[in-house]
Amino acid sequence: MTTIAFIGLGHMGDPMAANLVKNGFSVRGFDLSPALVNAAKAAGVFPCTTLAQALEGADVVITMLPAGKHVLSVWQELVTAVPAGTVLIDCSTIDVESARKAHALAAGAACPSLDAPVSGGTGGAAAATLTFMVGGDPDVFSRTQPIFEAMGKRIILCGGASSGQAAKICNNMILGISMIAVCEAFVLGEKLGLSHQALFDVASVSSGQCWSLTTYCPVPGPVATSPANSDYRPGFAAALMLKDLNLAQAAAQATGSATPLGARASELYDLFNQRGNGERDFSGIISLLRDQSGVETV
Ligand code: NAD
Fold it and tell me: Exposure check for the chain: N or C terminus, fewer CB within 10 A?
């Protein structure tokens, strides 16, 4: 049986580790929060009080941590503790530069490594329907398929080391920009006396059609399951959208890519977060645009 050390048992890591157990993997869990380690026991995760304990006998290590600095600090420690050949997988969303450094640390210890950020949120993590965007060696990717299949539905090899992170931030830059575009259209429609339903009926079957409109419609009504119908409870929190847009901007600056709309989206989400909306769904940014347009929230 494959033994997996799972490091980071937060909102995403906890259900992902539980799904690995459900699929027959032996999982050793560690988090800086003892309460989270304890809670994971209920799902059959073996609780570990230190990183070193979690790594004992592990064939594979998965990290699911907040940001690049956390991943690098854990990987620096773990590469000195695991035997060569241990497969290291980082599922966190982190900057491309840190992802490259993590792969280099693994290579220095003769450990195969993959970056494998996810989309699908906590709902997808619980239902094992996450999408994995994977960067790394194709042979390591095929060997680890059963692990990804236990936690997700779509598993896409995007290219070599760090290309999973690249795909993730490019996708989320599209998402942030397109959500603002859809919100702007609804606010303009409100000013022009157009009903939400009429705009939705037209745009959802016309060239304005996109995921931000048809799945996460930022006004209540047209899409019953969108967060707008539950006072913008996430969903995908605005703080996480800002994090991903900032990662995209860091990559754009490092590579000299022109991303003027990505930069503006990042500024607008920054303002939205500063106004205390970090825990709201990212589609709630329509309220910022209404404020700036002098429109009462409807
Ligand atoms: P979270 O903050 O709930 O969990 C992260 C966990 O890592 C925390 O429990 C923290 O205690 C632990 N941790 C931090 N440093 C550690 C260390 N040195 N050793 C052990 N544990 C440590 O975050 P989350 O929502 O689970 O997100 C994790 C990652 O997934 C982030 O990179 C996030 O951007 C990404 N992500 C999140 C979502 C989402 O909807 N929450 C969706 C897609 C991607």
Answer: N
Q: Is residue 50 part of a domain?
A: yes
Whether residues 154 and 174 share a domain: the answer is: no
Which of 161, 194, 222 finishes a domain? 161
- CB-based burial label for 103 (10 Å; 0-12, 13-18, 19+): buried
Residue 201 CB: number of other CB atoms within 10 A? 12
Q: Is the Cβ–Cβ distance between 262 and 246 less than 8 Å?
A: no
32 is in which domain, residue-wise?
Answer: 3-161
Q: What is the CATH number of the domain that holds 192?
A: 1.10.1040.10
For 295, the 3-state DSSP assignment is coil
- Determine the residue of 31, 89, 171 to mutate for testing ligand 1's pocket, defined as the one with the most ligand atoms within 8 A of the Cβ atom: 31
Do residue 74 and residue 135 come from a single domain? Answer: yes
Whether 42 and 83 share a structural domain: yes
Q: Please, which pLDDT band fits residue 235 given cuts at 50, 70 and 90?
A: confident
- 46: which strand partners? 28
The residue whose CA has the least distance to atom 3 of ligand 1 is 10
- Binning pLDDT at 50, 70 and 90, where does residue 298 land? low
Q: Three-state DSSP class for 160?
A: coil
User: Which residue type occupies 178?
Assistant: S
How far apart are the CA of 29 and the centre of ligand 1, in A? Answer: 14
Query: Looking at the domain assignment, is residue 298 inside a domain?
Result: no
DSSP-based helix, strand, coil % in the chain, nearest 5? 55, 15, 30
CB 121 within 8 A of CB 103: no
Q: Is the pLDDT of residue 122 over 90?
A: no
Which amino acid is located at 61 in the chain?
V
Q: Could you tell me if 16 and 97 lie in one domain?
A: yes
Catalytic residue annotation: 168
Q: Where are the alpha helices (DSSP H) in 81-144?
A: 96-108, 121-127, 138-143
